[in-house]
Write a structure and sequence with these properties.
The structure is a single chain. This protein has about 90 residues and is α+β, with helices and mostly antiparallel strands. The protein has a single domain, classed as ACT domain (Alpha-Beta Plaits, 2-Layer Sandwich). About 35% of the residues lie in helices and about 40% in strands. It is built from three helices and four strands, in the order E-H-E-E-H-E-H. A four-stranded antiparallel beta sheet has the order 2-3-1-4. The model has no long low-confidence stretch (mean pLDDT about 90).
Length: about 90
């Protein structure tokens, strides 16, 4: 299993989660866990996804998520789980 951490931060609006989840579904990326917090007009979402069955390269996926983020006015970042863990260990 290739686990990837995806974060999304931005101004909340209708359809943000749908756009990201639709991208995952269309590219055979399984959402393993999802957490979201909305504070006033802002959203912060974190997802753990399994990318082992997608035909997209990691760099292609991150580029496409960047494009989706630009269209919906959010910042979407993806990191391999190992890198995320190394950056956030105490």
């Amino acid at each position: 299993m290739n686990r990837t951490i995806v974060t999304l931060v931005g101004k909340d609006m209708v359809g943000i989660i749908a756009k990201v989840c639709t991208y995952f579904a269309e590219n055979n990326i399984n959402i393993l866990d999802i957490s979201q917090t909305t504070v006033q007009d802002y959203i912060n979402m974190m997802m753990i996804v399994d990318t082992s069955k997608t035909s997209k390269s990691f760099s292609q996926m991150t580029d496409e998520l960047d494009e989706i983020g630009e269209r919906i006015g959010c910042i979407i970042k993806a990191q391999h789980e190992e890198i995320f863990n190394m950056m956030h260990r105490v």
